[in-house]
Amino acid sequence: MDRRAFLTAATAGLLLPQPATAAASAAWGATPARGRTLAADPFTLGVASGDPSTDGFVLWTRLAVDPLSGDGRGGMPARDVDVDWQVAADERFTSIVRSGTAPARARDAHSVHVELKGLQPGRDYFYRFRSEGRLSPAGRTRTTPAGETPLTFAVAACAHYEHGYYTAYRRLAEQEPDLVVFLGDYMYEYGPSGYTALAGRVRTHTPGKCETLGDYRLRHAQYKSDHDLQAAHAVAPWLVAFDDHEVENNWAGPVSSTGAPGFARRRADAFRAYYENMPLRRASVQGAVLRVNRRVSWGTLARFHLLDTRQFRDDQACLDGVRAGCDDRLADERTLLGADQWRWLEGGLRGSDTRWNLLGQQIMMAQRDYKVGPGREVNLDSWDGYAAERTRLLGSLARTSNPVVLTGDAHMHHLAELKTDFDDPDAPVVARELVASSIASDGDGYRDRTWIAEALQENPHISYIDQRRGYLMARLTRDEISVDFRTLDYISRKGARARTAHRLTIPATTGAAAAGQAGAPRAG
């Protein structure tokens, strides 16, 4: 089986868990576990990897023999379970480069996070797990390169389970990216039909709104049980960051959007379940804080600066929502990133020596006027609600080498020019913002050409909008970034094709974009 055949099998769902055979056991160099064997397959939630470095990455799995058991424990016994793991240089696992055993602890919902070091830079690796006589599916991951190696990466966000099937994840996996950047709303906290799409409910959430640790664990298990999502995780390492729905719609720092009591406890439970179900490093867990703002470099070619636009922000101005006439949103002291994260980002942008700098973040950065005609209405949950800090950030990007902003949340593809003054048509463009539509949220999607034309007219710095579901696929070299806006015609049933609805290429500039001339894109 060559690499492409391996990936085809993975995305087709053929590399399924199975009992350990004698041949497989020999490849592990040990006999299968005897006694206390789990009654059913514990690898129902798949495998994943993330946060690659030049010499390693994180490997993840979570044991669950009954993933939808109502207490969120996955039907697992109240004891720790040993899990063997292997990393190989080939897809047949004939060249094992690392192996070991990690405990899947009951207190951690039987999740496993293995942090690898000491591997070779810029190469593919394959991994799998074994526990009590059962083998997991195999996954492919990779280390980051040491030099200026080209990169193909996907950008995705917003995957409401009830709103549609995850065909977009399947199509993403079939394109075999080197890396997947996921920018929030991986799961949704609503109870069944708590947030409905136009076409109604295709699938049904687990009972009740997520409020306890057990609720969040169960909801994550439901999402992870989807084989299309498992295929996307198995094909490449992921960089993940949360937005609001991993906790509660439009939460802000310590503030619940609904004023619900006990929000600090609920947020802590949501953070714990998120870590248990994601390929994150242990260093991300810092007491009551789950640190997802971090930097990952792709050799000397690019640096990803992942932001957290929820945990450290001030509450939304003027009671949140899409509103006109909210002067409070313009206050200089309002912060979205918080003081510590701001200093971290500023230092990282100043000190970056890579050719490209990619900001992965959750909410629309470009100014976005929702009102047709005179006046202006903006979304106070987005950067429009924190306008002064946005201006300062765009000033920093103007001094940064080839910045590109990657965004989720909006449930529509957008391509926007970022300026320090959006109301001045002659203001220089300091960066481009690429907004990925949703994987599933809001259902099938549509193309309201009249609405799109009006939105583009009201916002001349935005040049493309598409209301269909999809993701971005980008190819990055020293000289340019080429981006495909991928869309699907439907997700209310399975099997839709993915098409490139729009393509553009952004050339690199020589040095920083501070000269005020971020590379002009070329549409495909």
TrEMBL record:
Every Phospholipase D N-terminal domain range: 45-143
Gene3D superfamilies: PhoD-like phosphatase, Purple acid phosphatase-like, N-terminal
Record bears the keyword Transcription regulation: no
Keywords, ordered alphabetically: Signal
Domain PhoD-like phosphatase metallophosphatase: start-end pairs: 153-485
Entry-linked Pfam families: PhoD, PhoD_N
UniProt-listed InterPro entries: Metallo-depent_PP-like, PhoD-like_MPP, PhoD-like_sf, PhoD_N, Phospholipid_Metab_Enz
Signal peptide: 1-22
Protein name: Alkaline phosphatase
Biological classification of the source: Bacteria, Bacillati, Actinomycetota, Actinomycetes, Streptosporangiales
